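Researcher: Please predict.
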Amino acid sequence: MPAQGRRGIIAGGIIALVLVAFGVFVLPFAFTTPPPIITRFVATRAFTPGNEQGRAIATAAIRLSEPSNVSITIKDPQSGRVVARLADGADLVRTRTLAVTWDGRDLDGRQVPDGTYAIDLEARAGDKKFSKSRKIVVDTTPPRPEVTVATTAVGCEAEASAPGESASVQFSVPTARVQSKPRTIGPKGVADWAWNGRDDRGRLVPPGIQVVRTTARDDRGNQSSTALTCWVGHLEARAVPGSPASGDAVGVVIPGGRNPQVTLSLRQRVGDPGSPAGTRVLGDPIGEDVTGPASTARITIPQGTRPADVWLLASTGPDAQALIGFGGTG
């Protein structure tokens, strides 16, 4: 091939490469795609209408690239029914941004049931249209863990389990002004707390029934509270015999080989620790108290009285009192 022909081919190739580069790197900037009508759409994902402790109002916000007619509705995703209208689309929105709120009420002013709803956005500017949908959850149901409170040798032990959703759980004894640190658990998680029977200054609380309050709270501010009782006596003792019959004489054994002076008394058993706060546990006295060394002091269950209907109180002083149910240790 003549040299002149080769030079022509090379020159043509160079021109082609320049044109390709121009198309790749220059033309997209010269002929930009116009932005959509809506350039930003954000909305609350979950809220609790009317709850001032959490997110009580839902918000939807948009940014517009040009004046547009905007419609924002809340719909039931199952039926497609319009539940509420936050922007009706009739007026031209000329601002760059628009924010609307929803208080969880329907078109008739009634609170909607808990559930998942759709926030539907539609915008129109001339022949251009835009539509988008997001989910929003209405949740007014608090977490409700299963709560138990048990009496221990020194105080109380509380447990909360399976709240049904992620929740922050906290335990407290209001009369002692003590509380646990909040602990976050999952829908099937467990949180527990052992209380040593002392107040916020480290002093022993007086023997008797105490109330342990358990509070569970979700991240939307929904909250439930359970108050259960326990017995705090600062004395560990067991009855002998442990399962007496009506008419039997009963004493106590105090662990550690101690033989202190003890006062024994019988009370009607009208309830049990671990019950809801306000439930009576101790009823009227039965017979006379008995005082003597723990190794020899005995109190008699009256004939005709069922041991299951009786509490035995064993006291070694004003700050040490055991509550004993027959058939187990109190």
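Model: Residues 151 and 192 are 13 Å apart (CA to CA).
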